[in-house]
Amino acid sequence: MARIIEKRHLTPVTKLFVVEAPLVARNAAPGQFVIVRVSESGERVPISITDFSRQAGTITIVVQVVGKTSGMICAMEEGDEILDFAGPLGRPAPLPEKGHVVLVGGGFGAGAIYPLARELQQRGVRVSAIVGARNKELLILRELLESASDDYHICTDDGSIGHKGFVTERLQDLLSANAGFTHCFAIGPMPMMRALAEATKPSGLTTFVSLDPIMVDGTGMCGSCRVTVDGELKFACVDGPFFDAHKVNFDEAVVRSKMYVDEERLASELATAAR
Fold first, then answer.
1. Which of the two residues, 240 and 206, has the higher pLDDT score?
2. CA separation, residue 11 to residues 16, 71, 82, 143, 253 (Å)
3. What residues pair up with 131 in beta bridges, in sequence order?
4. What class is the 100-257 domain?
């Protein structure tokens, strides 16, 4: 079991946990994820790694309440022990050694792009970050990500801070202004990543997206995260989670991401009724 040593409330529905997991931290790399299970009968939840410290033996994760199990995780407190905390899983992000990388994070993705930014900064690669949220109150980890970026851009749906509109709009503005990006990495909701792929394709900007939203088991055994990339069958959890955005069959991926919506809704309703 892994003990929670720190909990922070980032928004009313988003929590940050620092977890004591030395074996995971020893082998973690930017772009990987962990599988979390809080009870013997509970589901396995894949969660992107937000930060890791080999020296302290800790893994930091950000969890947003979207259903029953994520709600159970967010209800845990400092000192509680997570039953299963397996990882690191997935392949590290294929980060370049030079150039100018733009990192795009939507919602919870703002936390997941931080380890990429930190690693790129250590390599001497120029980093621009674009983060999006519905409003100012839902923006997370600004100071952390801003410290690891050369340029930091905020987008909110309501315009309460930063650019009013979507991250794709801000990215297109920067591309039109010849920002000089050589690579793009995006983590966030499936519609955002799909729109991003469409936005960067005309310019030929090398773009990678994390298909973690379609993962379930996280080990390749369940087959729920099957996706077609450049005409070949891949598994988001073991072959990814990062893939060339311009080669992903998003029609198929979007369907996968909605496969268990009814079951998730029912589980949430039953959990609410049981309280």
1. 206
2. 10, 14, 22, 15, 28
3. 105, 154
4. alpha beta
* Residues 84/23, Cβ–Cβ less than 8 Å: no
What pLDDT, on a 0 to 100 scale, did the predictor assign at position 272? 60
Over residues 9-37, the mean pLDDT reads 93
Cβ neighbours for 105, distance < 8 A, ≥ 6 positions apart: 111, 112, 113, 129, 130, 131, 132, 145, 167, 186, 187, 188
Residue listed under structure tokens 């994070």: 105
The residue with tokens 């309440």 is 65
Q: Which of 13, 170, 31 is nearest to 114 (CA)?
A: 31
DSSP-assigned states of every residue in the chain: -EEEEEEEEEETTEEEEEEE-HHHHHH--TT-EEEEE-STTSPPEEEEEEEEETTTTEEEEEEE--SHHHHHHHT--TT-EESEEEEEESPPP---SSSEEEEEEETTHHHHTHHHHHHHHHHT-EEEEEEEESSGGG---HHHHHHT-SEEEEEETT-SSSEES-HHHHHHHHHHTT----EEEEES-HHHHHHHHHHHTTTT-EEEEE-GGG-SSSSSSS-TTEEEETTEEEEHHHH-SEEEGGGB-HHHHHHHHTTTHHHHHHHHHHHHHH-
CATH superfamily of 2-88: Translation factors (2.40.30.10)
258 band by pLDDT with thresholds 50, 70 and 90:
low
Positions of CATH 3.40.50.80 in the chain:
100-257
Residue ranges of the chain that CATH labels 2.40.30.10? 2-88
Look-up: residue for tokens 């709600």?
Answer: 71
Decide which of 196 and 222 is more confident.
196
